[in-house]
User: Which sequence fits this backbone?
């Protein structure tokens, strides 16, 4: 079955859309397995950004002149593209930020200012990325609130049965990573949201590692907030998104102050603009937004379902291959996991592994992957992570396996 | 009274003769002068449409099952555009207004004024006119 | 003399570096006079960004693989380019943000958390951009502090003699716009800083409208903080800078939490990374930073001094021309003003003016220019603004004057 | 003892024979085994160099007007690189160390390890070695 989906997907054709993949690194063909850190961009994204530089650039909003009006249209169309991509109810619920990290900081500040009082509680999981830990810790520090943690087991499975006992009258928000950037685990957010609903608790989904891998429908999920980054969904850097239900966004105070987010400004009194502008202070990254729209269109045209199935096949293929390698520890083996593989070769430092693979042309990431609690869970200092995308192939996985053998030969 | 469709086609015919933007604008300036003067008591903040760079005031009354609009603006071209909207939509049934497809805007080259940018506020204007119609429809409903 | 500098500057050659300028808008040659909102980009910036998409893209920091190491080098070199551009003492004092607005919000939050207590005072000017008003108002709201305002006169001159009486024992910070985005006034920030020094008050300079027009040396100025935006200095959108003296940045708490800004993270205790990383949470806009570096290099190569002299000549030329037009009110006529001209034609709404100029191919901005207090000062709802750059010409100014005549003919 | 310059040239000569990266790394692995074992009491957090993805411990002692380094790392290639640094810099006067231009790093193709990225920390390593030299120079100064 896996093989079937592998064949049905024309990855050769896909790769033609990503010119960067067709290069040599250290005199070896590049095998780009660092997609968890950032993804490569299809030509359509590069072309759109270039078009801005060559003939479309102009600041948006309030501009009466032609270029400004066109750029404004592009920007609002990009918002609509994002809305449709995650099936939000209306485009006012889509706020452009500079990335998932900014989105979470926006939420922690604005939600915190309005709804968090001393003694209140926020719940995250043990497998969060730092971006979904530190803003909440900072908020808890400011407001004297408490951060609680849903643990996971050694397979990388969230211990959901612990959630009820973690929830109290004081719980205001649960912010949870959808797909773990280390373990690949796809968490059962629908279940978490259902539980939260019964207690009237808001739920934020960190979808930074999921929107690019599987179809997401925020209305079906019924999440209150959802965040992701442009550069991880094949789009530009410096652009991100926070989705929020209108009823929430209407209530939250703004995060950043500046131009465009205001209605009337005087030194006596300032009133804020309506949604979504209230949360978009200053000149937004409108070129980034236009590029992001192209990236999402590319994904939609390719089909998130198809992408998901192909990537699942890659995962099955890789996990099977990895099992055959002696002394290879892969962290996270929950079924249905994303094509993210963090591992340690027994007795070899992740940095040594990464440096050798690099010289073979394989780009992997090493270290803590901005998820130190996950490292602490397994009692390690770091891991090697190969994170794949739909332009990767089984041949590349085979080559990684050869690379691992080479590392073992050198260090053991 | 001419059908909504027909009025729009008349407007398009009037504009089609201009191939220069300045002529189109000059015509809108002309039209702005023909807009009935709004009752001064509606030229207050309560009747102002948010999201325009110019001030736009709009009022709607219900008379013999029809919605009757009056409006004004401190910017002339905006006022000219409003006069077109009033010409097309005023004195029609709420239903007709709610269902109206304002194709003439695009056809006479004013589409960019419909963008959600707040520079011009034509979009806000149309929205507000339809909101009035919806409100009257709810109140006096069923035609 | 003016004519001299006009001739000495090869603007034709400069324009070749900005392909976007060579186009028709509404069937007329584009006259781009909206540089205060955003500037156009030289080819070197476009090429660098494109190079990222085509063969350099990779996330930075901690990456051992080739592409990541190269991107990291580029990013840190960009930081060094910024340092040298404003002559900061060391590159740790350069923090990349997503724009001037973010820079000011960072400062308002971090400075506010550490140094602002109830009753404390912050001073700005009456001619600030909203980006340098609203964050302080929000801070004052949170901390029960007070915002005080240095007024300006009808010429657009800051009433500096008022500053001593505004300063009190409670004054913690003065944040002042260097060049007004409406009036063009270049404020005497050196004098303000000297006064502030005597009272031990920190000074932040909003250089969003000045770094692109005149050479700035933060050590010579001795300012404590300085902010600007990439997209206004001929660079990409979504990237900005805050400079801060090391002694300040060391003391300030971080603003956003997330990856890379931390040292150690656990649910018990999180420690922060050293400068400059402490203030750069998550994936920064590293492509934007690389592009910004190219933009600054372009400016340095062209010569800020030369640019300044040429633009001053444009200003003199324009102001002289404008004086000859009946019924034209230009706001701001302080000598040495930047090439920013805000005006109203007697009896004509700015929006009408802007719409007609647009159809002549002239891109100007209309409205309040994110400076409503300036509008309130002059008792107007809005202005038309023509903001020039060093790729603009006297011929374009002449054409604007024709445009104004045309507007008068149509509406008066 | 050979001049700092000369030792670097020796190292370059040793590396020049490898045209394959794996051979270079294999050689570094060899070298890592030759690094004198650091006294375990220095393998504590106090002696760790910040900014490395691998753990790097460094100690420096002052002996007969020379700085003597000892070091260790939990990553092998890093340890191999350290052994080169120790070979070049150890048992030299503080002055010599402070002024040292470590051109061999670039020459043997390890320059990318000097980037301010924290992955490898070679830069932090060199910095720390020089800091020790500066400190000893301040303390025992004038050669
Ligand atoms: C799960 C998760 N959340 C949040 C982030 C932060 O994204 P960014 O660095 O683009 O802000 C990442 C990126 O590594 C991630 O993997
Ligand atoms: C003086 C001044 N400060 C701050 C800003 C805000 O810059 P940005 O919108 O790029 O964040 C602007 C931009 O209009 C400005 O002119």
Assistant:
């Amino acid at each position: 079955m896996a093989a079937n989906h592998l064949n049905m997907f024309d990855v050769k054709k896909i790769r033609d859309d990503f010119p960067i993949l067709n290069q040599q690194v250290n005199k070896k063909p590049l095998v780009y397995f660092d997609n968890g850190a950032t993804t490569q961009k299809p030509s359509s994204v590069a072309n759109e950004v270039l078009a801005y530089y060559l003939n479309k650039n102009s600041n948006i909003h309030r501009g009466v002149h032609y270029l400004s009006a066109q750029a404004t249209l592009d920007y609002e169309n990009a918002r609509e593209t994002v809305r449709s991509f995650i099936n939000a109810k209306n485009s006012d619920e889509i706020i452009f930020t500079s990335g998932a990290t900014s989105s979470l900081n926006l939420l922690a500040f604005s939600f915190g200012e309005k709804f968090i009082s001393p003694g209140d509680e926020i719940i995250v999981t043990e497998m969060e990325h730092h971006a979904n830990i530190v803003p909440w810790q900072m908020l808890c520090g400011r407001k004297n609130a408490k951060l609680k943690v849903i643990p996971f087991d050694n397979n990388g499975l969230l211990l959901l049965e612990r959630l009820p006992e973690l929830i109290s009258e004081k719980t205001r928000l649960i912010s949870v990573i959808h797909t773990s950037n280390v373990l690949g685990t796809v968490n059962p957010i629908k279940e978490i949201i259902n539980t939260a609903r019964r207690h009237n608790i808001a739920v934020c989904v960190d979808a930074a590692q999921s929107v690019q891998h599987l179809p997401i429908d925020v209305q079906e999920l019924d999440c209150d907030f959802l965040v992701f980054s442009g550069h991880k969904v094949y789009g530009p850097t410096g652009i991100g998104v926070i989705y929020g239900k209108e009823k929430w966004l209407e209530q939250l105070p703004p995060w950043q102050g500046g131009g465009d987010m205001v209605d009337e400004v005087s030194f006596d009194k300032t009133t804020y603009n309506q949604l979504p502008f209230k949360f978009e202070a200053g000149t937004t990254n409108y070129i980034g937004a236009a590029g992001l729209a192209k990236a999402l269109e590319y994904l939609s045209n390719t089909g998130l379902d198809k992408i998901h199935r192909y990537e699942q096949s890659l995962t099955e293929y890789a996990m099977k291959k990895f099992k055959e390698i002696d002394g290879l520890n892969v962290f996270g083996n929950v079924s249905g996991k994303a094509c993210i593989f963090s591992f340690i070769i027994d007795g070899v430092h992740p940095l040594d592994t990464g440096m050798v693979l690099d010289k073979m042309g394989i780009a992997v990431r090493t270290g803590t992957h901005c998820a130190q609690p996950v490292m602490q869970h397994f009692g390690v200092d770091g891991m090697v992570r190969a994170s794949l995308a739909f332009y990767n192939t089984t041949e590349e996985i085979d080559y990684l396996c050869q690379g691992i053998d080479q590392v073992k030969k050198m260090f053991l | 009274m001419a059908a909504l469709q027909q009025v729009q086609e008349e407007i398009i015919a009037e504009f089609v003769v201009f191939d220069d933007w300045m002529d189109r604008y000059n015509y809108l300036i002309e039209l702005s002068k023909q807009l009935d003067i709004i009752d001064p008591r509606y030229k207050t903040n309560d009747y102002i449409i948010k999201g325009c760079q110019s001030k736009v005031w709009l009022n709607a009354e219900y008379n013999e099952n029809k919605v009757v609009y009056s409006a004004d603006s401190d910017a002339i071209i905006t006022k000219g555009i409003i006069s077109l909207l009033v010409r097309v939509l005023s004195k029609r049934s709420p239903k007709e207004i709610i269902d109206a497809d304002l194709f003439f805007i695009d056809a006479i080259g004013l589409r960019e004024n419909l963008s959600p940018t707040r520079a011009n506020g034509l979009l806000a204007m149309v929205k507000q006119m339809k909101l009035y119609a919806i409100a009257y429809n709810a109140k006096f409903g069923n035609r």
